[in-house]
């Protein structure tokens, strides 16, 4: 049965473009287009859509207010339509906190050509969102108490996290459970340019860690988290006693740049037994083979379990490959990483 889609956007052009994209796919069915939240409310009652595309900036009621009301009253998978601006990225991240599944970034120029170029990505995201698991939003969670701080055993350990759809909130939950003296961490998330900087700044405010978008040559330091910038692969190299990040603009891997596999494979080559890696929620297979390489190199590997994933795609691939030593619910992953961080290298056998 086709996925029923409702488009909510005050732009007639965007509504028309999305209408054509949706109607051109037999697996999707457009149930209606709404110029504002009030028309959308009536169409939701009438058609009970499987997924909704939602603009942030709309008249009479903005998209975030509408999304908040929708998730409290009639939870429905939502795909946000976001502008590639600092204000747009902040609003999008807030929407993901409120329960939106994913987002589509509007191009800055040539919106018609830009959206048509991403036709297949938009269709795939609509289908994925319709099948996604709606989880209860955490809201503005406060950092956990500092009682779990333990003496840092070694600056050699590295935490590596990869994720895609549903990953913004999943990564945040893991980082909220880590103390300020935890091993340095690197993160790759499928996110376009601009959004990764805003996301890093948001995590820096919300967690007890120093979080920022990675720059080429940055050292991985205890208590610091480096986020791969949108449109750049992040690799890790050994430099004397230090680990540093290198950014590169090679071709997408598994359809993504940044790609989790690029980061994981580089870490497997240079860090091996010092690695603590987690692959979280996301569609597709990116990260699964990289996680397998880390396990084969002697690192400790974790995959998020199906019940706590928004989309059980990337972790499923890893589990089926035998890449994960542990399969854990999201709320236990931070503690598992800390437990491994306390152990010596002898605890990281494959």
From TrEMBL:
SUPFAM superfamilies: CheY-like, Methylesterase CheB, C-terminal domain. It catalyses: L-glutaminyl-[protein] + H2O = L-glutamyl-[protein] + NH4(+); [protein]-L-glutamate 5-O-methyl ester + H2O = L-glutamyl-[protein] + methanol + H(+). The modification 4-aspartylphosphate is found at residue 55. It is found in: Cytoplasm. The keyword ATP-binding does not apply. Phosphorylated by CheA. Phosphorylation of the N-terminal regulatory domain activates the methylesterase activity. InterPro entries: CheB-like, CheB_C, CheY-like_superfamily, Sig_transdc_resp-reg_Me-estase, Sig_transdc_resp-reg_receiver. Keywords: Chemotaxis, Cytoplasm, Hydrolase, Phosphoprotein. Residues 152-344 form the CheB-type methylesterase domain. Contains a C-terminal catalytic domain, and an N-terminal region which modulates catalytic activity. PANTHER family: PROTEIN-GLUTAMATE METHYLESTERASE/PROTEIN-GLUTAMINE GLUTAMINASE, PROTEIN-GLUTAMATE METHYLESTERASE_PROTEIN-GLUTAMINE GLUTAMINASE. Belongs to the CheB family. Involved in chemotaxis. Part of a chemotaxis signal transduction system that modulates chemotaxis in response to various stimuli. Catalyzes the demethylation of specific methylglutamate residues introduced into the chemoreceptors (methyl-accepting chemotaxis proteins or MCP) by CheR. Also mediates the irreversible deamidation of specific glutamine residues to glutamic acid. HAMAP family: CheB_chemtxs. This is Protein-glutamate methylesterase/protein-glutamine glutaminase.
């Amino acid at each position: 049965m086709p996925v029923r889609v409702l488009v909510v956007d005050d732009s007639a052009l965007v509504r028309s473009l999305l209408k054509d994209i949706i109607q051109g796919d037999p697996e999707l069915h457009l149930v209606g287009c709404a110029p504002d939240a009030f028309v959308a409310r009536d169409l939701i009652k009438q058609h009970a859509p499987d997924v909704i595309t939602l603009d942030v900036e709309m008249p009479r009621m903005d998209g975030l207010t509408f999304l908040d009301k929708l998730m409290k009253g009639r939870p429905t998978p939502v795909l946000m339509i976001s502008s590639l601006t600092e204000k747009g990225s902040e609003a999008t991240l807030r929407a993901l906190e409120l329960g939106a599944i994913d987002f589509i970034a509007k191009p800055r120029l040539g919106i018609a050509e830009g959206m048509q170029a991403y036709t297949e990505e938009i269709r795939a995201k609509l289908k994925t969102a319709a099948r996604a698991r709606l989880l209860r939003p955490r809201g503005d969670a406060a950092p956990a108490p500092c009682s779990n701080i333990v003496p840092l055993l070694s600056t050699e350990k590295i935490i590596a996290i990869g994720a895609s759809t549903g990953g913004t909130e999943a990564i945040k939950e893991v980082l909220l459970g880590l103390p300020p003296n935890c091993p340095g961490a690197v993160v790759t998330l499928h996110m376009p340019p601009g959004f990764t900087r805003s996301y890093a700044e948001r995590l820096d405010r919300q967690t007890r860690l120093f979080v920022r978008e990675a720059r080429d040559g940055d050292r991985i330091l205890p208590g610091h988290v480096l986020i791969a910038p949108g449109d750049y692969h992040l690799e890790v190299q050994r430099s004397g006693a230090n680990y540093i990040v290198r950014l590169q603009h090679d071709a997408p891997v598994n359809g993504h740049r940044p790609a989790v596999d690029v980061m994981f494979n580089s870490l497997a080559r240079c860090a091996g037994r010092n690695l603590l890696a987690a692959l979280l929620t996301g569609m597709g297979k990116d990260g699964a083979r990289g996680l397998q390489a880390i396990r084969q190199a002697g690192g400790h590997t974790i995959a998020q379990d199906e019940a706590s994933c928004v989309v059980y795609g990337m972790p499923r691939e890893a589990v089926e490959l035998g890449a994960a030593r542990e399969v854990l619910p999201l709320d236990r992953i931070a503690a598992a990483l800390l437990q491994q961080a306390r152990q010596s290298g002898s605890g990281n056998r494959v």
